[in-house]
User: What shape does this take?
Amino acid sequence: MAGGLSKFLSKILGGPMSGRGAGGKPAETAEQEYNGYTIRPAPFEDHGQWITSGVIEKRVDDEVKQHRFIRADMYPGRESAAEASVFKAKQMIDMMGDDVFAVDGD
Assistant: This one.
């Protein structure tokens, strides 16, 4: 059980297994620009389902602000999870704007 938890946390926090799909192969991501933000979907597989997850970034002066998110939404395929990740990121941007970065304590 501890191994499963550490694998899960590694995926969220950017450890060695982060961004990897089935079989440990890197999951492809398609960045998208939206209202001055960069959205990078990063769904990951867990027990045969794909979890909605991603990164929102914005360059402010010489600094790149970043917010990583994960949602409980699960999908049977990577493509649908990636689409949901982009949708969720756009929602957060529309609702919170730059305050999305304050959630991470920045």
